[in-house]
Amino acid sequence: MNTDRRSFITKSLLAAGALTQLGQTAFGNTFAKPVPGRKKRPKAISIEKNTVILFQGDSITDAGRDRNRLGPNDTNAFGNGYAMIAASTLLEEFAEKDIQLLNRGIGGHKVPQLQQRWQADTLDLKPHILSILIGINDYWHKRNGQYEGSAEAFKSQYRQLLQTTLAALPQVKLIIGEPFAVKNVKHVDDSWFPELSAYQAATKELAEEFNAIFIPYQQLFDEAEKRAPGTFWTSDGVHTTLAGANLMAKAWLQYANLK
User: Fold this and answer.
1) At residue 9, does pLDDT exceed 70?
2) Nearest to 65 by CA among 106, 23, 99, 29
3) Which of 43, 79, 142, 186 could make an S-S bridge to 28, C-beta 3.0–4.6 Å?
4) Do the beta carbons of residue 207 and residue 68 sit within 8 Å?
């Protein structure tokens, strides 16, 4: 990123109290086997010619994208969420690199649904950088009786997904987003916690286990509520408004630290 944009993003996140040491790390170019874990500390991610970056997850990543449009760098294929904002910034910033950005988020999905479509929607695309935001439905659907699960099952399934990924793509750079919920906005109330916190802790622990970049979205939104109410950032406590999508995109760009 150029100096002015990097400075702007950094100042914005500092205002939200969101910068952590984890946000300043990224992956090196090679990783030692065996799978599943990576023992080396990550280094800055270098964007090379034709780098493929894939956003994966549920409706927050999907954000109304046209699922019939599967090509890279297509506005309609990205929807109107954080992935679109981050992708558009990256395309402009690295215009000379001919990078390829893809979105395969699907609304309503949980880790088991990711596992079912992982070969076609992730492994076959051979991303160099893979960003995953999943987990809110693994908890939410349990609340409304549509799913039987637990934080332990979620973590185990997620670990299997990451193991499969590293076995097929041992050099992929992983970015794991924390599932989040904004209290007292429509569907979300105090009863969501502390059980949701166990799912959030699982994603952080997996990020550490697999040496992935971790984006603490819950902290970002908690801090953002000091600036404006939750309804300013999310429409229902889970899905972002335009402001919330931009908050997430700026955080993604800062923590990913692509160069």
Assistant:
1) no
2) 106
3) 43
4) no
CATH of span 3-23+47-256: 3.40.50.1110
- Both tokens of 225, joined, read 């509520």
Domain boundaries along the sequence of the chain = 3-23+47-256
Q: What count of other Cβ atoms lies within 10 Å of the Cβ of residue 68?
A: 7
Give the residue among 178, 106, 88, 166 at the shortest CA–CA distance from 135: 178
Q: Of the candidates 150, 29, 148, 47, which has an alpha carbon nearest to the alpha carbon of residue 94?
A: 47
| Cα-trace Rg, the chain | 17
∠ CA(170), CA(172), CA(176), 5° rounding? 120
Enumerate the β-bridge partners of residue 56. 132
- CA 14 – CA 173 distance, rounded (Å): 25
User: 134 and 141 in contact (C-beta within 8 Å)?
Assistant: no
Helical (H) or strand (E) element with 174: strand 173-177
Which is it for strands 100-103 and 129-133: parallel, antiparallel or unpaired? Answer: unpaired
The Cα 250–Cα 252 span in angstroms is 5
Sign of CA dihedral 116, 52, 248, 222: positive
pLDDT at residue 18 tops 60: no
pTM: predicted TM-score of the whole model, two decimal places: 0.84
Q: What is the pLDDT of residues 170-199, one digit of tens each?
A: 999 999 999 999 999 999 999 999 999 999
CA 249 from chain centre, in angstroms, equals 10
Instruction: Give residue 146's pLDDT.
Output: 80
Query: Which comes out higher in pLDDT, residue 226 or 46?
Result: 226
- Which tokens sit at 23? 């946000």
